[in-house]
Amino acid sequence: MKRFVLILGAAIVAIGIAAGTFPxxxxxxxxxxxxxxxxxxxxxxxxQDRSRTIDQNRALVGACYEKARxxxxxxxxxxxxxxxxxxGGASIKSRD
Length: 96
Fold this sequence. Notes:
The longest helix has 37 residues, at 54-90. It is built from 2 helices and 2 strands. The protein is 59% helix and 11% strand. It has one domain. A hairpin with a 2-residue loop joins strand 1 and strand 2 (31-36). The chain has helices spanning 2-21, 54-90; strands spanning 24-28, 31-36. Helix 1 (2-21) packs antiparallel against helix 2. It is mainly alpha-helical and 96 residues long. The chain has a two-stranded antiparallel sheet.
């Protein structure tokens, strides 16, 4: 049982890390752009792209921040849940 809980906790942590590092794309005002990921936001690089209007860039930055904050929370929450399961699994007494 202890081994199963430890493996489950490690898997949940891995899922949390994957959720936080998943590449994000945002669409706003008829334009779309890459936003980085939940743990490494890159919306300010959108302003360097001169192929869109200033209004499109502002809308994209807002959409990117919103998406990145959401996925950052999801990533940390799931990874934290996995860490709690790991700690709980480590405290289970083995039958040996």
